[in-house]
Design a protein that fits this description.
With 171 residues, this protein is mainly α. The protein has one domain. Helices cover 59% and strands 9% of the residues. The protein contains 6 helices and 4 strands, in the order ββααββαααα. A two-stranded antiparallel sheet has the order 1-2. Strand 3 and strand 4 form a beta hairpin. Helix 1 crosses helix 6 and helix 3 runs antiparallel to helix 4. It is globular, with a radius of gyration of 22 Å. The N and C termini lie far apart (62 Å).
């Protein structure tokens, strides 16, 4: 098989790259790009939750930077929610329990799929509650777009909004 050589002209001279080097460079660039996206989303989510928690007077808002502890902060921001007629209080405790428990139990064959789906729906309902508190007019849109993993961006966008009361919200 014939190797193709590509020339890249520089001010000082000419550099040659074969097709394998170009493909390797492309994969390295894509790998770097795909690693940066989750990192940027993590930073957006952490800043958003930290500012929201600080604005609500929640102690130790810096916990938004620590995995699992950030679920405590996220739940404490919403405080409580009505889930299909059942009022869940102390969401700061229940959000981490449900999310971590769902991740652990999703490895059970067959039943794990149902648990994983239930955990995902619970998290979407939580996000709807959060978005309803901080941006009632756009809560549905933000929740639907959160299926595409855009929710950290929305949390970051809403971080400085003033919360409305969540006592009248029913899911």
């Amino acid at each position: 098989m014939k190797q193709f050589k590509y020339t890249i002209k520089n001010i000082k001279g000419v550099y040659f790259m074969d097709s394998g080097s170009i493909i390797l460079t492309w994969f390295a660039g894509m790998g770097l790009f795909l690693c940066l996206i989750p990192l940027v989303l993590y930073v957006f989510k952490s800043i958003g939750f930290m500012v929201m928690a600080a604005n609500k007077g929640i102690e130790n808002a810096w916990l938004a930077w620590i995995p699992i502890a950030d679920l405590y902060i996220a739940g404490s921001i919403v405080e409580d929610m009505d889930l299909f007629g059942t009022r869940i209080t102390n969401l700061g405790l229940w959000l981490p329990v449900v999310m971590v428990g769902g991740i652990i139990l999703e490895f059970i064959p067959v039943l794990g799929i149902i648990i994983s789906l239930a955990t995902f729906i619970f998290f979407l309902l939580y996000l709807y509650q959060l978005f309803s508190i901080y941006s009632p007019s756009q809560a549905t849109l933000f929740t639907v777009l959160s299926i595409l993993c855009l929710w950290p961006i929305f949390v970051f966008m809403l971080r400085n909004n003033q919360p409305t009361s969540n006592q009248d919200l029913t899911i």
